[in-house]
Every structure is written in structure tokens, then in C-alpha cells.
Protein: Carotenoid biosynthesis protein
Organism: Rotaria socialis
Amino acid sequence: MTAWDLVLDPYLSGPTVRAWVWHAGGIYFGIPLQNFFGWILTTLTIHMMYRFYESPIIMGSKYRARKSYPLILPVLGYSAMCIVHLIPGEPKELRMIGPVIMGIPVILALRRFMRNS
């Protein structure tokens, strides 16, 4: 989610769309760094709560119960969002930053999916 926000925020808060405005500004395309730390903390908290809930349910059959191709759909959706946000190319630097920042989670997810399939 934080990687997605690194691509999405400069576009949506940029001069073309202006969906929101950062009054105090920041060093990353005018976005304050605490925005990204907030995303890391939020997604980590949600992930840990889910893992805590999930672990007693699955126990030893964790990967046996999950061998299905629909699990790849969120990765494909995330990849599509990367492409959609990069097409406008506002700001132009996102054309380089986006594929790297959002590509790393995609590659790791696909690698894990292939390893567990």
C-alpha cells in the first residue's frame, strides 16, 4: 500500500488533478514523509491483525488450502493499478519511480505464488 501511495499521491495531489493539497508540503513531490510512515504503520497493523486471526484457523495446512489461481488476482489488480497511474505520467519522474517501487512487491508476490503452487 505504501508503494502504491508513493506513485498515487504525487499524481493526485499534483498540479493536474489536485484531489487534495498538502499545505505544509514535503520533500517527496510536496508530500510530507509522515504520510508514508502512516501508511506503513496502518498496513502493518492490519496485516498483523489478519495474521493473528488467520493463524489458528489454518495451522499446518496453510499452503495446501491455498493452491488456487484466484489468489493471483490481487497481484494482477495491483499491477494494473500501477500501469493506470503511470499512463498520465504526472509528474514525469513517476514513469521511472513507479515500475521500480510497485514492481518489487509484484515480483515478490509472483515469486512466492510460483514457489507455493
